[in-house]
Amino acid sequence: MKFSMIFILSNTLLLLSSSAFAKIASPPSLSPTPAPAPAPDFVNLTDLLTVAGPFHTFLNYLESTKVIDTFQNQANNTEEGITIFVPKDKAFQALKKPSLSKLTDDQLKQVILFHALPHFYSLADFKNLSQTGSTPTFAGGDYTLNFTDDSGSVHISSGWSITKVTSAVHATDPVAIYQVDKVLLPEAIFGTDIPPAPAPAPTPDIAPAADSPNEKSADSKASSPSSSSHDGSSSYKIISYGIWANLALATVGVLVLL
Ligand SMILES: *[C@@H]1O[C@H](CO)[C@@H](O)[C@H](O)[C@H]1NC(C)=O
Ligand SMILES: *[C@@H]1O[C@H](CO)[C@@H](O)[C@H](O)[C@H]1NC(C)=O
Ligand SMILES: *[C@@H]1O[C@H](CO)[C@@H](O)[C@H](O)[C@H]1NC(C)=O
Ligand SMILES: *[C@@H]1O[C@H](CO)[C@@H](O)[C@H](O)[C@H]1NC(C)=O
């Protein structure tokens, strides 16, 4: 007797709960607007690089070598995403005489491809990456970069030049764009004597050959704690990137809401 009571009770409960569930479950299918539209999160690299920077020289090379299509395609169509290191216009001006102009078209394309990794890395990921040694770039083969994380500041070695990440222009999966101090010169090209270099460097260790005197004095200024006008303007710029990034994020937010 008791058993059947319990049986009936539990059955009623089951019925109640399932009908309640059905009531809860049905409305969404009737609602006319399917809210979470599969947002095509398209990042226009040309747009980003036009607004930030100035990165005009790099952008021009991206376009003249058509590498922009490779990068944009990676950003558009892969789960892996992309990480791009972008030197400012000043970094190209600081290159010594036999700069990029002496390269063949193929070499120039390799140099530009060398500035990106076929994977999205947040700044925090570089700590991890510094343990793995040589990291492949879009240029493939011997064109690898090494990363070291020096208490939060990311240093990049190409074997021929050493530089560091100075700010994050954009870092939202799947696209990361970081500003770097110098043009990344691949040892596979610059380690040979293809660009008839003026004097230097039998040993790659001493090789930050891309330094200009200008840059050196700027570096030494920056390393002193004094607040020169240089320091002020660059930190102002970094802040303004932050504002741009926030604006971009806000825009994305609004788009997603729409
Ligand atoms: C990306 O932005 C550039 C510059 O604003 C524009 O010319 C180009 O048409 C855009 N590309 C796409 C696919 O929206
Ligand atoms: C990337 O996606 C945008 C928007 O869907 C499209 O207009 C553009 O042609 C795509 N570019 C590439 C290289 O896939
Ligand atoms: C990064 O660290 C995570 C866990 O700490 C590990 O699973 C992953 O393999 C590491 N990635 C690289 C590239 O070393
Ligand atoms: C990069 O790291 C690998 C492994 O630690 C090392 O063999 C190689 O010499 C390094 N290359 C550069 C350019 O620092």
UniProtKB/TrEMBL annotation:
Residues 220-233 have a biased composition (Low complexity). InterPro entries: FAS1_dom_sf, FAS1_domain, FLA_A. Gene3D superfamilies: FAS1 domain. Residues 42-184 form the FAS1 domain. Its main location: membrane. The keyword Signal applies. Residues 1-22 form the signal peptide. PROSITE patterns: FAS1 (PS50213). May be a cell surface adhesion protein. Belongs to the fasciclin-like AGP family. This is FAS1 domain-containing protein. It comes from Crotalaria pallida (Smooth rattlebox).
